[in-house]
Amino acid sequence: MGIGTDAIHGGQSPDKETGAISVPIYQTSTYKQDAIGQHRGYEYARTHNPTRAAWERCLAVLEKADEAVAFSSGLATTSAILKNLKAGDHVVAGNNMYGGTYRLFEQIYRRLGLEFDYVDTSDLDALREAMRPATRMVFVETPTNPLMNVSDIAAVADLTHDQGAFLVVDNTFLTPFFQSPLELGADVVMHSTTKYLGGHADVVGGIAASRNAEILERLRFVQNAEGAVPGPQDCFLALRGVKTLAVRMPRHEENARKVVEFLQSQNKVKRVFYPGLETHSGYEISRRQTRGAGGMVSFDLESFGAAQEFAKRVRVFTLAESLGGIESLLCHPSSMTHAAVPKEERERIGFTDSLLRLSVGIEDADDLVEDLRQALA
Ligand SMILES: Cc1ncc(COP(=O)(O)O)c(C=O)c1O
């Protein structure tokens, strides 16, 4: 089936009892057992919930995985993935990724005995050099947040496997509509459902998918043992949101390309970061391993002051954290999504205070461009 069909029907069928087309919100904490030791596959809602199970089956179909495991947020998902490791294990991660992921690694898991090194994972030599005998996991965002660097997933997977480690790809920015990391050799693909999968800025969630039975078993165990589960209402919203993924994503990209074209024509814009640009260093890899460049665009203005003024003036774009919803958002990463990353770390990779990030929504492109024009003026 094509992704448009799978997004609507994947892992779902009309309710057996009533024929309800939409998977119902099973708002229950527990289930009747028919006799001691005899239940119908459902005992307690932290462990099992039919709405959650439908969402997990749907995402597994979309990511071409054996199974998916849902959590209460993207970060809860990353945290569960890290529970495949033990103290003393080493992780190599991208040096430009969502600030909350960096904070989770540095301020929680380092204290618990995991070791982390950060490199530009688009540079395979740098990645090879960062590997140690104790390296058990490589964590990659591609494209990265917010610099839009692209890593070659297949090559990174080979290097990772040579080391006896497993590769995790955060696919939040591109979604399975544009990129299929498991097909390229990644062992785990994860998402902040909060973003494009949910798609409507009305739910927080996360999900991981894999074909590796051992990793899946551990994720399922952590889901139940720790309990960072999404509620049935949130799973319903994720299921409903993802149904239109194949309609929304091309429009996000179409609008992003028009926004990029406009930004590039402006003197006040110093640099535009978008992997769909032929001048982007990851353009060729991006063309090879994705089906599109997505709806996220970053750009640099002349100064922090200019970025501040710009942010005050936008009318259709809204200054807000998050991304991937139908409405266009503007973010100042160094003070918002990446405030947890030390300034020196940011500056080392060319991530300035004058950098702005756009999550280009699905409004009319002309209105978006006009808004940027008047804010720049
Ligand atoms: C690429 C990426 N991964 C993970 C996360 C974390 O997801 P959540 O906010 O749902 O915990 C975010 C949040 O912005 C993100 O942008």
Describe this structure in words.
The protein has 377 residues and is an alpha/beta fold. The chain folds into two domains: 3-242, 3-Layer(aba) Sandwich (Aspartate Aminotransferase, domain 2); 245-376, Alpha-Beta Complex (Aspartate Aminotransferase, domain 1), CATH 3.90.1150.10. The protein has 14 helices and twelve strands. The strands form two sheets. A seven-stranded mixed beta sheet has the order 1-7-6-5-4-2-3, with helices on both faces. Strand 5 (166-170), helix 7 (175-178) and strand 6 (188-192) form a beta-alpha-beta unit. Helix 1 packs antiparallel against helix 2 (50-62), helix 3 packs across helix 4 and helix 10 (245-264) packs parallel to helix 14 (365-376). The N and C termini lie far apart (47 Å). The site of pyridoxal-5'-phosphate has 15 residues, from helix 3 and helix 4.
Summarize the structure.
With 377 residues, the chain is an alpha/beta fold. Helices cover 37% and strands 15% of the residues.
Helix and strand arrangement:
Elements: H1 3-9, H2 50-62, E1 67-71, H3 74-82, E2 90-94, H4 99-109, E3 115-119, H5 124-130, E4 135-141, H6 153-162, E5 166-170, H7 175-178, E6 188-192, E7 206-210, H8 213-226, H9 232-242, H10 245-264, E8 271-273, H11 283-289, E9 296-300, H12 304-313, E10 318-319, E11 329-331, H13 343-348, E12 355-359, H14 365-376
Parallel strand pairs: 2-3, 2-4, 4-5, 5-6, 10-11
Antiparallel strand pairs: 1-7, 6-7, 8-9, 9-12, 11-12
